[in-house]
Structure formats: structure tokens, C-alpha cells
Input
Amino acid sequence: MLRESEFRIFLKEIEFIVIKAGEFILKNFGKVKKAYFKGKRNPVTKVDKESEEKIKKYLKKKFSDIPFLGEELTPDKILQDLYWLVDPLDGTVNFFHKFPIFCVSCALMYKKEPLIGVVYDPVRKELFSACKNKGAFLNKKRIRVSNTKNLSKALLSTGFYYEFENTPDTNIEHFIDFLYSAQGIRRTGSAALDLCYVGCARLDGFWELYLKPWDTAAGSLIVKEAGGRVSKFDGSEFTPFDKEILASNKILHQSMVKILQKKNRKLK
Output
């Protein structure tokens, strides 16, 4: 674990490089014409890779002994408890289609637990950050989850796995269940921002299936440090390496668990 002074040093450096990467992405927004596909619907652009290269190069220079696990590049071997988890461009489909909702996400991990999480939205110039047991912030101002008490008054968000044809749970049934229960549902296309929006009370809850650890590591810490709750669909403890995530303002959590368990669906 980190000492107080180390938290400040790490947070400062992470915020710096995440903002720089976000500025690079925004500079290229609307200019990318080609992408290749990791799956039927899962594009990757040169900006994704170049953003990750910039983050990795900077963090390796500052913290050479900490391994790096990102979405696009060949990962380092994780042979120690402390390591980086990075999504260099969360919301690539949005970015490629010139839809202005995307971000950069970076977490410092200890085993399966995020110690520091930073998410930067370059379009809105919003920097979300959190350190374990030290609160969550948006542009240096403390944030808190909503106090919405009834699901019928709640605004929720979700997403859908790219290769849903090959999964036992498409999330469509969950979506329909919540459609009848909540005030509204959004699909932003960026799980990291969805989690940040739960943290700052723009959303009351979020759920999704089959996300990757770099999608949720930073954002899940931000929700927790903002006073919310993050779990698996059955309410049990969540880590970024799990196949399902439920985040809420805490008040609505059991109501959301009940709906997600409605038909006792199980993952492979």
C-alpha cells in the first residue's frame, strides 16, 4: 500500500498524463477515417494505440518498476501486486463516429483493488479522480452520489457487449426489466464515464456485463469514494476482473439487485 505522500505524487502524475492523452485524442477528433476491428463491432483506431503509447512511456519514465496493463498494447507481465490498468480511449465507437462522449481512464492497482483512479473527459474538460479512503473529486471539487430514494425516479445507464450473440446473457432482458422500473435509461457508450456520472449524481445507477478491468477500475473507485456502492449483480463484492458490475447511489442498490436477479440468470 502507499503512504500519504506517495498518494499525492502518484495522483499528480496520473492526472498530468491522462489530461495530455485526452488533449491528444481531442486534437484528432473528427479526423480519423480508418479503423480495424478486434471483433464484429469492436473498432480500434491509431489514436487508441498512440494514446496508450504516450501514457505507458510517461508512466514508465516516472515509475519504471511498475508494470503496465492497457487495452491495446502487449501487456507487461504482472508479477507483482502494484500495477497500472489503463483504457487509453474509452468510447472508441463514439470517437470514430464523431459522437462526443469518450474519455481516458487510468487506475493504480494493488492486487485486484484500485488505489487511485482518474478519468478525463477532454470534450468537457472534466477530470474525475479518487484515492482510496480520501474521497472523490471533479475538477478538484468533492463529489457525492445522488440521494434518489425510489427507482421510479432514477436515471440509470447501461451498455451492451459487442459480441452479444455469443453470450448467455445479452443484457436485453435486464434492460427491459429496468425500462419498466426506472424513470429513464441512457446508453452513453463509455462505461468509465457512466461510473463517474453515478459518482457525481448525474446518474443514480449503472449496470453492465462483460466489461474489461480497464473499463471499470478507475470509475468503480470514484463511485465508492463518492459514497456509492459497487457490486456484482447479486450484491456480492466486486473487483474490476469480474464479468458484471452494478453501481448505484447505495440507496437504490438492493432494488437494482432484486431486478437483476429477477430471473436468476447466470453467466458462464
